[in-house]
């Protein structure tokens, strides 16, 4: 009998908690508890809790000044919290910053690139600073350039690259030491739509490689397409966290229902006007649009009541709200700075 990992797991049977390999797998990539940061008397972070599982692409959204960059700088070991803790792969960012740095690639919101380098030299410079031997770098750097679509710019001077290319180069720089976690602060800011799509494609690829990614952005609908979960931060507090659909469901206070009737539309309008949660009615050539304040259950009751009252419905549909609507609803369009 061998005493390898599978044997240990078999011996433990269903007791998954006891299997060493599963214990390791259960360590979240990011664990933040009670994280607070004060700048003088200003409370930029007011006790944030956040857990992100390995392999997740997490979108961090919030208005200007909400505390996204502060949180990311702490995770990147560049700033110490006032209280609370942040761990990366179980390692405390304040107590063992060097261990954490090996595991993370950080792209700040404002970054400088050394203009006097050629693209390929720039990556060699960073690779060497991580102690990667030259022979290894020679293999790795063409792959990185390929990943970020800069192969044809390998001999171009960095100062001749467009903003989008510089952003992608900066992303490649974050990847030289093959980190497990990418901390990307507004990687798509200032990019034109095409460059944003390219950035999104690269991030998709990184996700498929199993990286955990935390990404902040103001471009919310785009973020929704590529993230598994979002966290919404405002005034230094996490006000919502979960998968995109859940957050939309939970936070949505207003729905737009489109109802088309076969006939008796005037009567139906009067009936709807008296129903609970109906805030506003609009009529157009497609029927009646209802601004509805209820949730799934109340919405289903409304449909039930309409049919019960003998109205003949041709269609009953809910207009999709997007992440932008949700974000504005949650943060009420406010500025996070106090
Ligand atoms: N070094 C500092 N000294 C004083 N105040 C600071 C410092 N860094 C950040 N702040 C303040 O802390 C708050 C949070 O800033 P942070 O940069 O984390 O916000 P953000 O959510 O990243 O905003 P943005 O989307 O505009 O980048 C802001 O009110 C900011 O002015």
UniProtKB/TrEMBL annotation:
Belongs to the ABC transporter superfamily. CDD domains: ABC_DR_subfamily_A. GO terms for molecular function: ATP binding. Residues 30-260 form the ABC transporter domain. Signal peptide: none annotated. Pfam families: ABC_tran (PF00005). The keyword Nucleotide-binding applies. SMART domains: AAA. The keyword Transport applies. Keywords: ATP-binding, Nucleotide-binding, Transport. The lineage of its organism: Bacteria, Bacillati, Bacillota, Bacilli, Bacillales. SUPFAM superfamilies: P-loop containing nucleoside triphosphate hydrolases. InterPro entries: AAA+_ATPase, ABC_transporter-like_ATP-bd, P-loop_NTPase. This is ABC-2 type transport system ATP-binding protein.
């Amino acid at each position: 009998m061998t005493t390898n990992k599978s044997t240990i797991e078999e011996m433990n049977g269903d007791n998954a908690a006891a299997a060493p390999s599963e214990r390791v797998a259960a360590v979240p990539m990011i664990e933040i508890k009670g994280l607070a940061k004060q700048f003088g008397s200003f409370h930029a972070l007011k006790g944030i809790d956040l857990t992100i599982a390995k392999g997740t692409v997490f979108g961090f959204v919030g208005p200007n000044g909400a505390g996204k960059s502060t949180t990311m700088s702490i995770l990147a070991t560049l700033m110490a919290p006032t209280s609370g803790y942040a761990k990366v792969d179980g390692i405390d960012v304040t107590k063992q910053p060097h261990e954490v740095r090996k595991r993370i690639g950080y792209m700040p919101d404002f970054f400088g690139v050394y203009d006097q380098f050629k693209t390929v030299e720039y990556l060699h410079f960073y690779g060497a600073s991580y102690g990667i031997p030259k022979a290894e770098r020679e293999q790795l750097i063409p792959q990185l350039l390929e990943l970020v679509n800069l192969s044809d710019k390998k001999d171009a001077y960095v100062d001749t690259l467009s903003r989008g290319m510089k952003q992608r180069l900066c992303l490649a720089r974050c990847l030289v030491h093959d980190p497990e976690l990418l901390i990307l602060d507004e990687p798509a800011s200032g990019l034109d739509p095409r460059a944003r799509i390219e950035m999104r494609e690269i991030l998709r690829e990184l996700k498929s490689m199993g990286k955990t990614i935390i990404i902040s952005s103001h471009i919310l609908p785009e973020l929704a397409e590529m993230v598994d979960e979002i966290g919404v931060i405002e005034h230094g507090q996490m006000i919502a966290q979960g998968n995109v659909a859940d957050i939309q469901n939970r936070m949505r206070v207003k729905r737009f229902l489109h109802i088309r009737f076969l006939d008796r539309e005037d009567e139906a309008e009067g009936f709807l006007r008296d129903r609970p949660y109906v805030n506003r009615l609009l009529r157009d050539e497609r029927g009646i649009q209802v601004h509805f304040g209820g949730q799934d259950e109340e919405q289903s009751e409304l449909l039930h009541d309409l049919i019960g009252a003998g109205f003949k419905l041709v269609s009953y549909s809910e207009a999709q709200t997007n992440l932008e609507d949700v974000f504005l609803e949650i943060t009420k369009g406010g500025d996070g700075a106090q």
